[in-house]
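Backbone shape codes
____________________
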Amino acid sequence: MPDLLGIGDANEYELYDAMDWLQKRQGNIEKKLAARHLKDWELALDDLTSGYFKGLTCPLACLGHSRNGKKGKLQVNYGLLATEQGVPIAVSVQKPCCLRLTRRVMSSASGSSCSLATGE
């Protein structure tokens, strides 16, 4: 993948800088992707999963429902919103107590509110 993207020689600091640049613009990027790829009332797919940590230093991690059966471990939720064709629209990383990926993205990215089934 690094060679395909032409970043095979990038060092970790350049990659962190690129992620910081993207994070500052995430909301605008998501809005543009939604406007380009999601039409009114088109089906959007939302996948939410979690990961557990053995350490104690992740500021987003807290005890929560473990989707992978690891009780007593710190959890982080992460989700992906995509079109029916699998085109990614938005990503989110959250504490386990904040399951609002789909509603946040759909209300801010599309610029209009819509009714969604989220499984919550």
Confidence is low (pLDDT under 50) at residues 101-120. Residues 2-109 form one domain. DSSP finds four helices and four strands in the chain.
